[in-house]
Please model this.
Amino acid sequence: MDLGIAGKTALVTGASIGIGRGIAVALAREGVRLAVVARRKGLLQELQNEIGARLVIIEHDLLVEDSIEKISAEALRGLGSVEILINNAGGSRRFTLESGDAQWEEALTLNFTRQRQLAHKLLPQMIARKWGRVINITGKSEPEGLNGAFAAKAAMHSWSKGLSREVGKHGITVNCVPPGRIDSEQIRRNYSPEFRKKESEEDIPVGEYGQPADIANLVCFLASPLARYITGTVIPVDGGLRRYQF
Model:
């Protein structure tokens, strides 16, 4: 299927490993010109070698105060425009009752505030072109306990829905994709092989953890003109892991 995004421009955050890397590879294969952001420049250069095309490589940490100004400026300078924004960067860690304000602020900054700021920074040039896509890679809505990322992702879903209602008239869609268990460096670090096997067999209907490409396939579709009538949604890609109806 021709998705009609060849020649489009996209900015992908958290693109050095896992889901972000998979999305960058998939978009590049569709002919999208890319700017990629991560803290580890070496991994972004490896990504460029794998893709076999020139990327705008932006080494930056989203927790740094001026990160949004620098990332948006470098992406626009390198690509000329950003028609597709993939907010993928983030991080999850368990909190306790003793977790302080600094930990909560860091989690909210990394998983919500910077994504919101980057989108609003890039929206004016999307509005000027009467076309744009904002796709947020978020997280599940079934917290097992306290976790700053879960709270931030809930904020992402609410903000994205509201934003979609404001920008739809400009040809811009805004959607969220919460991954289930996707095989990645972070998953392998946080969960033992025994846990992953047990969860796959007992909790995931399709019987296995997903791959970054499973997320990337949906992202490419949502980024395309074919998905023009899909906006304000939260579409899980989780092999059926979630139990709620909607």
Notes: Helices lie at 18-29, 41-51, 67-79, 101-129, 148-167, 185-190, 193-202, 212-222.
